[in-house]
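Q: Joint fold for the lines below.
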Amino acid sequence: DSGVTQTPKHLITATGQRVTLRCSPRSGDLSVYWYQQSLDQGLQFLIHYYNGEERAKGNILERFSAQQFPDLHSELNLSSLELGDSALYFCASSGRQGATEKLFFGSGTQLSVL
Amino acid sequence: GQNIDQPTEMTATEGAIVQINCTYQTSGFNGLFWYQQHAGEAPTFLSYNVLDGLEEKGRFSSFLSRSKGYSYLLLKELQMKDSASYLCAPETGANNLFFGTGTRLTVIP
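A: Joint structure:
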């Protein structure tokens, strides 16, 4: 158990809908990273938050947004969903702002858009 | 920008040794991570190299050459449970961590 909690584990929805994925980092970790992994694809970096502030963005679509709350949990919001958004979404946490400390990954949220 | 290159797939026999290579081109470099990911599961940390050379950790070792932009993961005494994807990720200090597409290793009896 990495100590990172993601909910829900599975999510099935329809095209055009909006969903929210939730991540609770390990106790004491200030950084949260979000990744998308489509079938047979690598981990695609989406966004990084540190102590409530956005620190880096990857190839995150404009339909996607995220935030980190004062209690350090983070949410990834996906809207106007398309079939291609079906993927495994991981969050990861670390203690530091930079990534020189290893990341601990949650078990992921499997999103299926039908 | 950055570029990370790993072989897509490799197959090796149980008990053998396999080397998984990773080459990278990045703007900025602090060190390099290797992660293991079993299908449908979360990636788990294997190693982090900062200095040139080989670091050994049990059956797994990782090598780094900063000047060549090259790293490899060496797995010895392969076991069936080592069948997984192995992800290379150079750390650039830019508040992000990009992973290579990963090398899917299949261990056969």
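Q: Anything notable?
A: DSSP finds no helices and eleven strands in chain A. The mean pLDDT of chain A is 93.
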